[in-house]
Amino acid sequence: MMAPPDRRFPGWTPGVDRCSEVISPVPVNKLAATLDESAPGYRNGDKLPPLWHWIFFIKPVPHAELGRDGHPRRGGFLPSVTLPRRMFAGMKTDFLHPLIIGLEAERVSEVAGITEKSGASGSLVFVRVRNSIRQQGRLCIVDEQEIVYRDKGEPLALPEVAPFPQPVAKAWSEDITVDAGMLFRFSATTFNSHKIHYDRTYAAAEEGYPALVVHAPLVAMLLLQLLRKNTEKHIKRFEYRALAPLFDGQPFRLSAVVGEDDIISMEVQRSDGEFAARASCITAE
After folding, report:
1. What is residue 152's three-state secondary structure?
2. How crowded is residue 225: how many other Cβ atoms within 10 Å of its Cβ?
3. Phi, psi angles (nearest 5°) of residue 187
4. What's the CA gap between 178 and 132, in Å, rounded?
5. What's the burial of 43, exposed, middle or buried (CB within 10 Å: 0-12/13-18/19+)?
6. pTM above 0.85, yes or no
């Protein structure tokens, strides 16, 4: 039974999107190289690292069907929101079973909720997308992502660079500076053509950013890479909330603190002291 049209977005009807794909080791190793993994060499039969499913199940939208910002034109699977700026706001992912490289998997996606709000920067529309991924008939991952649409707003200034404070005792931490080359490779690996990640003129003139914007999904993957470097525990759930943009050429700090009940609290801090993201992770043996 088809869902009725949503009157808030003329011409758009909620639907279900299905996509099947073999979890090939080729893009997996390209992502590993992009993230500077010390020994890339994933093969068929290996477990796919958490969140790396984001490089799969991507519809090859023809270039002629992209909007001015580089995203697919609105009104297909996602609602026809008219607000000009689109950003990754956050996500929550449950890892029930690891995906196995070399086997086919299926992703089923649906718009799980739409919330309209008004904030300091103007109107906001939050769209929550639920992705369920199965392999060999078994539900492996439930991934909920939240996209926010907003007004253009005022241009942003480049954050001032200042020394980071000493890391918190017993925290895992890593200082990172992402350059334009990494942004390009990550955009290519995820087939993400949003121009804020590679077109400086567009990013500044159209969306008011002072530099290229670091992908929030890239930051989330770097956080889980920090965990994988420091613990062999299984990641059961990961939640991420974007708070402020990060820019190429500007250092930021990843940090994680292990708390009670195997819950790990994580933060991403800019060099001006502002937090760009907060996250949490539930682990198990």
Report:
1. coil
2. 20
3. -60, -40
4. 31
5. exposed
6. yes
Q: For 262, which DSSP code?
A: G
In which residue are the tokens 């993957």 written?
221
Q: Where are the alpha helices (DSSP H) in 123-263?
A: 180-190, 200-205, 216-230
Query: What confidence tens digit (pLDDT) does each residue in 171-217 have?
Result: 899 999 999 999 999 999 999 999 999 999 999 999 999 999 999 99
- Give the dihedral of Cα atoms 53, 67, 16, 13; nearest 10 deg: 160
Question: What gap in Å lies between CA 71 and CA 199, rounded to an integer?
Answer: 13
239: Cβ–Cβ under 8 A, 6 or more apart, which residues?
90, 91, 92, 93, 279, 280, 281
Per-residue pLDDT of the chain (285 residues; tens, 9 = 90+): 456 667 788 778 889 999 999 999 999 999 999 999 866 789 999 999 999 999 999 999 999 999 999 999 888 889 989 898 999 999 999 999 999 999 999 999 999 999 999 877 789 999 999 999 999 999 999 999 999 999 888 899 999 988 888 877 778 999 999 999 999 999 999 999 999 999 999 999 999 999 999 999 999 999 999 999 999 999 999 999 999 999 999 999 999 999 887 799 999 999 999 999 999 999 987
Query: 3-state DSSP: the chain helix, strand, coil percent, rounded to 5?
Result: 20, 40, 45
Residues ≥6 apart with Cβ < 8 Å to 62? none
Structure tokens at 235: 């990641």
User: Residue holding tokens 């958490």?
Assistant: 50
